[in-house]
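Milestone M4 deliverable, item 7.
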Amino acid sequence: MDPRLMMQAALDGELDAAGAIAFERQLADDAALAKEFQRLQALRRVLRENFAGEAAPAALRARIAARARPARAFGRRDAFSLAASLALGVVLGGGAMRLALGERPAPGLTDALVDGHRRALLAASQVDIASNDRHNVRPWFDAHIAVSPPAPDLAAQGFPLVGGRVDVIEGAPAPTLVYRLNEHTVSVTALPAASASTPGATPAGYHVLAWRGDGFSYWAVSDADQPRLEQFARAFKAATDNARPPPQ
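Output delivered:
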């Protein structure tokens, strides 16, 4: 069986004992497959924790049941059960599609950024490219999404660069730099400058700071305390301001 199909079957708990053993051997032999499996497991945990299933509205179930009543192939109770199951499947399926496209009901930019940071914390790796060298990180962004924000070296200030990843913010890919802040990490997402605004309400346990520079709107997210995150933001802004060529 194709490893990707086996992975989906494993995630759904559909492998028998022999299949599970075979899949475990594939994970041991294929590091990329193992990393992807861990990422999908983490994503499923996030979905279960943050997105509860919604039942079909009573009015919708009633309309479907009314249309199903004339059926003669099976009883009225069977028809209603099937109709309700289909309605629930449509509702849940639609929710899954919205989620896959990065959509949520009335999403806020702050929520999207914090969600991206939280997903990264749950993943096997917080970065798509692991490097403390901006000369590796910036070309990687440029090659993958044609956007390459400054990635200042802040190790001397106590904020070493960990790497970078691509997040999907409001339906568009966005470069996110990841820095170490003591035992915490900071996700710095660079968005078009036009998207800059005041951060909205932040989920408990997280802090968000925003500033502009170099044609970008920078958004820093971390569960570090607010003063420490502000210190990081000042260091980041000072480094990028100092690197900017003087006006002619």
